[in-house]
Amino acid sequence: MSRTTYPFYTSDISALARSLKQQWALEPAAPGHLQILNMLARAAGFSNFQHLRAAAEAPVPVSNTHSPLTKRLLRYFDEQGRLMRWPTKFSEQLPCIWPIWASFPAQLEMSEKAANEWIKSAEAIGDHVLLRRELVNYKLITRTPDCRIYQRLEQDIPEELLEFMAEIERRKVALED
After folding, report:
1. Distinct helix (H) and strand (E) counts, the chain
2. What is the chain's percent helix, strand, coil content, to nearest 5?
3. Under DSSP, is residue 141 helix (H, G, I), strand (E, B) or coil?
4. pLDDT by residue (tens digit) across 160-176?
5. What is the pTM of this model?
6. Cα–Cα separations (whole angstroms), residue 58 to 8, 27, 61, 64
7. Is residue 155 helix, strand or coil?
8. Strand ranges (DSSP E) for 96-172?
9. Secondary structure class of 6 (helix, strand, coil)
10. Which are the contacts of 85, defined by CB distance < 8 A and separation ≥ 6?
């Protein structure tokens, strides 16, 4: 099962360390897992871990001109067009794999390491192994029996996903500009 990851950023690591030290000193005993999560979140400027998590899970605004399917699928992608959460609904998993498939270069054999790098560049969930396995399971990429060579399988994108794929591409291009 994939673990949900939440991005953590601090502009000043020294201030983060100082805040953690001060918070830790107030504890009568070594803090537990949740207490440490809350300390980290407060040191980064959030009220607690739930606040950090809610900020990370906040959906990117979606245009009202998109179809309901596109709106639903875009919730899983950030403003750079990267997959940021793995859908729990089975019916949404395959559509969310297509943008990762599209990021693979066509007609190019690559090593497992190179394939992993392509996948990592298209996702922000931190589980490239799950995504690589799903790409193979859905027959979007192929690999040799020894898992050393990977290659994208050329196919037509399903018509109902064209608008969704165009929006993901628009986000990637907007990022480059």
Report:
1. 8, 3
2. 50, 5, 40
3. strand
4. 999 999 999 998 887 66
5. 0.65
6. 14, 31, 9, 17
7. coil
8. 110-111, 141-143, 149-152
9. coil
10. 4, 57, 75, 76, 125
